[in-house]
Amino acid sequence: MRVLTLNLWGEKGPLAARRVIIRDWILELKPDLIGFQEVVHSEGQSQVSDFLEEAGYTCRFGRSLAHGQSAYGNSIASRWPISYDVVHGLPSGPGRMEPRSMLIARVCSPQGDLSFACTHLSFGAGLSAVRTAQIEAVRRFLSQCSKGGDLAPVLVGDFNCSSGSPEMKNLRKGCKRRAALGFYDAWLLGGDGSDGFTHLKDNPYSREQLPADRRVDYILIARVVGGMVPLKRVIDCRVVCTAARDGVWASDHFGVFAELQY
């Protein structure tokens, strides 16, 4: 199973040129499942759904925020049929913070049904407690929606916190006492041993907002108990969408791509 996650950076920057680069990466990687964040959706189409549907993908969108006649949120694309999808709102912090949500799709893969989820947590150095609350909601919603599935669910997205943060440590560990799902981090199991940064100051689109390079984009697989087929191994995990073309980058984030074996 080939999985990709990428923050699309909305419609910022040289959109037409960025879109071609994103398309070419997808055609090269041939992922089975894709999770996008910061997706603009209008007139029934997202930024990428038209060419993805031409390539045989089924696409779903989950709104986090309305922008006039457009909407903004997460999107899922699958090479396999999607039997249903649902959007869950996530807790917000104080003040007028941007709403956040999680999109979950039940995917009918050749190996069995699984829940595939995409999310984007709140951005900000002082928002660890907010992200922790969002992670607990993500864990709870995904656990509920995964009932009856055949394969361990997959969660992807931009978590806006580093691998060593309390939020991510909590998410990976889980809690048996509260029957809370824990997760494997595909990069830690199948990466090349480097830091795996996905949000870098070398990228001019993200330079002004970053105090330091960070790994904030993840592919995570639930540690399951019971009858679900668990993850067997991560064959490969790579940081992708990394090369500029004529000075244009795919996004202000790099993507993460993993090949999973159940």
Question: What does this protein structure show overall?
Answer:
The chain is of the alpha+beta class. It has a single domain, classed as Endonuclease/exonuclease/phosphatase (Deoxyribonuclease I, Chain A), CATH 3.60.10.10. The chain is built from five helices and 13 strands. The strands form two sheets. Strands 1, 2, 3, 4, 5, 12 and 13 form a seven-stranded mixed sheet that branches. A six-stranded mixed sheet has the order 6-7-8-9-11-10. The longest helix has 18 residues. The mean pLDDT is 92.
List the helices and strands and how they pair.
Blueprint: E1 2-7, H1 15-29, E2 33-42, E3 45-46, H2 49-54, E4 58-67, E5 70-78, E6 82-89, E7 101-109, E8 112-120, H3 128-145, E9 154-158, H4 166-173, E10 182-185, H5 186-190, E11 217-223, E12 233-240, E13 255-261
Parallel strand pairs: 1-2, 8-9
Antiparallel strand pairs: 1-13, 2-3, 2-5, 4-5, 6-7, 7-8, 9-11, 10-11, 12-13
Summary of the model, kept short:
The chain has 262 residues and is α+β, with helices and mostly antiparallel strands.
Number of domains: 1
Q: Which geometry do the CA atoms define?
A: globular
Distance between the termini: 8 Å
User: Which fold name fills CATH's third level, the topology?
Assistant: Deoxyribonuclease I, Chain A
The number of distinct helices, counting runs of at least 4 residues, comes to 5
Output the CATH homologous superfamily: Endonuclease/exonuclease/phosphatase
The value of Rg in angstroms is 17 Å
Order of helices and strands: EHEEHEEEEEHEHEHEEE
Strand % is: 35-45%
